[in-house]
Amino acid sequence: MILKAIIEALELRVVAGAKHTDVEVTGGYTADLLSCAMAGAAAGNLWITLQSHLNVVAVASLNELAGVIVTEGRPIAAETADKAEEEGVVLLQTRLTSYEVAGRLWALGVQ
Amino acid sequence: MPSHQVFKAQELVYELKIGDIMTRRLISVTPEATMREVKQVLRDQRISGLLVMRGEQLVGIVSIEDLIRSLENDDLDAPASRYMSTMIHTIGEQESAVRAVKAFAQAAVGRLPVMDEGGRLVGILTPGDITRGVLKALERAYYEEEIRRYRVRHVFEDISSDRTSLILRYDVAVRDFNRAGRASSQLKQTLVRLGVDPRAVRRVAVVSYEAEMNIVIHSSSGGYLVAEITPELIAILAHDSGPGIDDVRAAMEPGWSTAPDWIREMGFGAGMGLVNIKATADEMYLDSWPRQGTKLEAVIYLKPKEGTTVDDPEGNH
Known about the structure:
A: five-stranded mixed beta sheet; B: about 325 residues; about 20% strand
């Protein structure tokens, strides 16, 4: 499924990387531990997390993730958004919980 | 077209000058030429519009749409001046192609006469010229990038020695979470450039990121990361000068960590770093003593070691 369609379906707020939403999402991964995301998320995955600090961008970029969904409306600092924009990382935000996001993605066929 | 090429095309639309992509061959008729003659020129030249010139002076543009109107009126003997449009939108030779894209969208015209700085007519531009210009420039950019990649990939072949390796060193500052991950990112980019297999690049990224974060989180005064790249393997060395690990065996247990709470809240310090490195690398050595530094070395083979068989080609250990 194309990331842009997921953003519309889940009404996600695009915080950074709006130019890079035309990519195929290969799956998803949920974790708030960066080491887990580093080891467990594969290229093209969407990473669902409560973390919203600067280092999330580095993990997403190193892993070539399709994007990061920051859940429960956690605030995202301007410097994180700037860094994501610079690195071409798609940073998304939602009020939903990680559990709900994962459930909806699964129902959409992102498995 | 992959999305990064779409962005490249968008960039090029800003970079390209009208003068680089316009058609310089000007095809014109006089205002007195009949629409029948216009029809003939359009057909012969396989074009969809013509300039109407009185001497050096541009007085109008006559297009296929105008020709159709004259045909509907059964008026092919009328002069071009009766059907041409005199509302002429022009564009400057030095302007960026993006101006033309906007002009075509706003003015609903099919062609724009191009003027030089002195106001002289020097060419004509159609939307097709923009597409062709961008495609040509994309092709050029792609070709230049390929040559660069080719040169980097063959760097090892051009050097004569018994053993050649490329050594990259990155300094890592302690507790600098704003720059954390920089060394790993730069190393990864370099490996991609060198044409290293993407699966190996990913493994190196996991190892270098964890090693880098360990220095950021745990060292007393920072340290450095060294990557030694050979055609056969990539070795990553992470050194810091303290405080050292009290119990190396415990440190290798999943979940064991000495990180303070504020670092754990960021999602670090979960005691998975060394475990990840060990699981990802082909070999790992950890040497650390309390009050002395920590030396970590991890090796990732790019080719199977002699005498061993690779039973997991995916690189997932």
